[in-house]
Design brief:
This protein folds into three domains: 60 residues, Orthogonal Bundle (434 Repressor (Amino-terminal Domain)), CATH 1.10.260.40; 32 residues, no CATH class; 116 residues, Umud Fragment, subunit A (Ribbon), CATH 2.10.109.10. 32% of the residues lie in helices and 26% in strands. It is elongated and about 70 Å long. A hairpin with a 2-residue loop joins strand 6 and strand 7. The protein is of the alpha+beta class. It contains seven helices and nine strands.
Length: 230
Amino acid sequence: MDSFNLRLKEAMEYKKVKSAELSKLTGIGKSSISQWLSGQYSAKQDKIFIIAKALNVNPSWLIGADVPMTNESTPEKIFNIANQLDDGHQKKLYYFANEQLDEQNKVVQLPTTNTVEVYGAVSAGTGEYLTDNQPEEVDYSGTVPEHDFAVTVNGDSMTPLFDDQQIIFVKKEQEARSGQIVIADYDGQAYVKKFVSDDNGCRLVSLNKKYNDMPVNEQHEFSIFGIVIL
């Protein structure tokens, strides 16, 4: 069972949310959630964002990054303040919140596009060279997390989590815990893989099972560029 499955279970237990309730909150089928919890496979990136939002946890934490599970959000701050108010002031807060909601619903939200600096490509299959060239600025319509650099995925060995040509975000690190998704230099080429370290040794693992594991041992040059975040 990998980091995503374990942390999804931990978050659901912490938030006291059952599979059926999470399915209603996210619109994701209960069968998919059950398969994730059992470790049969991991969720794709877009589903991870949906789950993280529903459970109010950090999406990077959800896939194994060494970050806090959750930070106190504005809604949580409001909830904590509301609990300290008497009934009369809680009603005033409730009416004010409804007024703010009505005002918000009258505003048309336009989609926004961010610009991301992408430093080359990493392979999900046969290996790529991660160069020191100037980054290319590209439009990116998704959520941009705090990161050190971004790269493009080439290949399908990390599906269903990452698709071919998908932009992913990375925090610079030289070490990783077992189960984390890493950008690694393996015999002079850059890969995105899951790093596994257990009783059978260290290796780079593809989520697409048609690809063989890549052993990390004295026969191969190996170093870690960073940890993939969402």
